[in-house]
């Protein structure tokens, strides 16, 4: 009798379950609609290196374009604004500032060649203007990656601002003459400053006065502390992730994330596999891959050195071919690892203090499913699956950076008076 009763009840229970599932499906937010309605701001792409060294044009939209970035991918990913990275390799011998100026010019040239698709932006308001109206264009901004590019001259810093640079990363992987980097903080052969030197603190204050965001990605922990203490405006980490999840010096500790909260700043999560992979064996997998492909790795290194000497298209083509072969098999963590980092920063620092800083075109590997800027909607979909609502996602995708940018501009106006 009991079995018969259960059999009779099963259709009723099944119908109730189906109704609940249907209700859940109907109530689940439309991820694509959320994505398309957001002003999406990525704070770090190394594409200017391709502009200068490869004569790459963003209008290129073919399989030959092996990078992360072109106008077709931008449209499909609904990217609203990009901070193009002005990165100067500290190993070059022709002058840091000259190289930076070449890269700045290359960004302006893309805007000049394609005014219907890209416009230079200098303020938070400019970003919003570029994304409103019937003809949306990519808002192009710039950030200098590595304080060595100013060659210890505060006047060059001012000139960079006049040319449109709106943030500067205080260091790259190298300690410069006024700020310590996380990249060589344990190298006894490098002269360190225990954070920022007095001149480094002047640089931070001058950036505040100008309205240039202070970027602490790449810096040592002590440099971070000094920058937080000195800056009168919110700071940013243009492309950093959470050290609690992936223990590398480039990432930020939970204490640092909380300090950014007090400062009012924002942490833009990096997409680099090595900075987001949560598998403890990931480094071993990369090492094994490199050993198995030692010949290709050596070719890549040799070609990189050669191209620094001859800058020839033939060498560049060979380097691109070898790099593509290596990327095809490079170990990649799941997309969930990237979302875990965004989620962690949001929980520790707060939903108002997290964003995205991809490092596109500057890293050897991105998480599975993120092959270019075209795949940004997958991040939105994953955040929806984690329970984030439209308002929160809009903050992560760009709203938080817009707030910080506006505050930095406000501090600049007060200091200028």
Keywords summarizing the entry:
TIM Barrel; 17 helices; 417 residues; three-stranded parallel sheet; 2 domains; alpha/beta
What would you say this structure looks like, in words?
The protein is α/β, with parallel strands linked by helices. The chain folds into two domains: 332 residues, TIM Barrel (Alpha-Beta Barrel), CATH 3.20.20; 51 residues. Helices cover 51% and strands 10% of the residues. It has 17 helices and nine strands. The strands form two sheets. Strands 1, 2, 3, 4, 5 and 6 form a six-stranded parallel β-sheet that branches. A three-stranded parallel β-sheet has the order 7-8-9. Helix 7 links the parallel strand 4 and strand 5. Helix 3 crosses helix 5, helix 7 runs parallel beside helix 8 and helix 13 packs antiparallel against helix 14. The N terminus is likely disordered.
Radius of gyration using CA atoms only: 23 Å
Number of helices: 17
CATH topology of the largest domain: TIM Barrel
In round numbers, the mean pLDDT is 92
Class computed from helices, strands and strand pairing:
alpha/beta
CATH superfamily of the largest domain, please? Metal-dependent hydrolases
- SSE string: HHEHHEHEHEHEHEHEHEHHHHHEHH
Cα distance spanning the termini: 87 Å
Care to count the β-strands? 9
The major sheet is characterized as: 6 strands, parallel
């Amino acid at each position: 009798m009991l079995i018969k009763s259960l059999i009779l009840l099963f259709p009723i229970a099944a119908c109730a379950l189906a109704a609940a599932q249907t209700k859940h499906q109907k109530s689940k937010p439309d991820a694509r609609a959320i994505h398309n309605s957001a002003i999406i701001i990525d704070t770090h792409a190394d594409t200017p290196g391709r502009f200068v060294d490869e004569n790459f044009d963003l209008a290129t939209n073919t399989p030959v374009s092996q990078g992360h970035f072109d106008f077709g991918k931008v449209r499909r990913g609904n990217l609203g604004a990009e901070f193009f990275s002005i990165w100067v390799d500290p190993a070059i011998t022709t002058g840091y500032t000259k190289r930076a100026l070449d890269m700045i010019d290359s960004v302006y040239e893309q805007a000049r060649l394609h005014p219907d698709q890209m416009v230079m932006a200098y303020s938070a308001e400019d970003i919003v203007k570029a994304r409103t109206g019937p003809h949306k264009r990519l808002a192009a901004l710039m950030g200098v990656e590595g304080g060595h590019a100013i060659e210890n001259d505060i006047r060059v810093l001012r000139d960079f601002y006049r040319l449109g640079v709106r943030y500067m990363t205080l260091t790259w992987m190298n300690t410069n003459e006024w700020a310590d980097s996380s990249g060589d903080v344990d190298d006894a052969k490098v002269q360190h400053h225990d954070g920022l030197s007095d001149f480094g603190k002047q640089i931070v204050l001058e950036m505040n006065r100008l309205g240039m965001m202070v970027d602490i990605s790449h810096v040592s922990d002590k440099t971070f502390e000094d920058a937080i203490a000195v800056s009168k405006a919110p700071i940013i980490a243009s492309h950093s992730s959470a050290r609690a999840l992936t223990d590398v010096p480039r990432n930020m500790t939970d204490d640092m994330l909380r300090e950014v909260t007090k400062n009012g700043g924002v942490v833009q999560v990096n997409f680099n596999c090595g900075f987001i992979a949560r598998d403890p064996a990931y480094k071993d997998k990369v090492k094994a891959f490199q050993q198995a492909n030692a010949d290709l790795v050596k070719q890549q290194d040799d070609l990189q050195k050669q191209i620094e000497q001859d800058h020839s298209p033939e060498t560049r083509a060979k380097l691109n071919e070898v790099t593509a072969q290596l990327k095809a098999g490079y170990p990649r963590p799941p997309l969930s690892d990237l979302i875990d980092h965004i989620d962690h920063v949001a929980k520790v620092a707060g939903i108002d203090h997290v964003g995205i800083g991809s490092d596109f075109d500057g890293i050897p590997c991105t998480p599975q499913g993120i092959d270019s800027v075209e795949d940004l909607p997958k991040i939105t979909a994953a955040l929806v699956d984690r329970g984030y609502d439209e308002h929160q996602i809009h903050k992560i995708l760009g709203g938080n950076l817009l707030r910080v940018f506006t505050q930095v501009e406000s501090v600049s106006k007060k200091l200028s008076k």
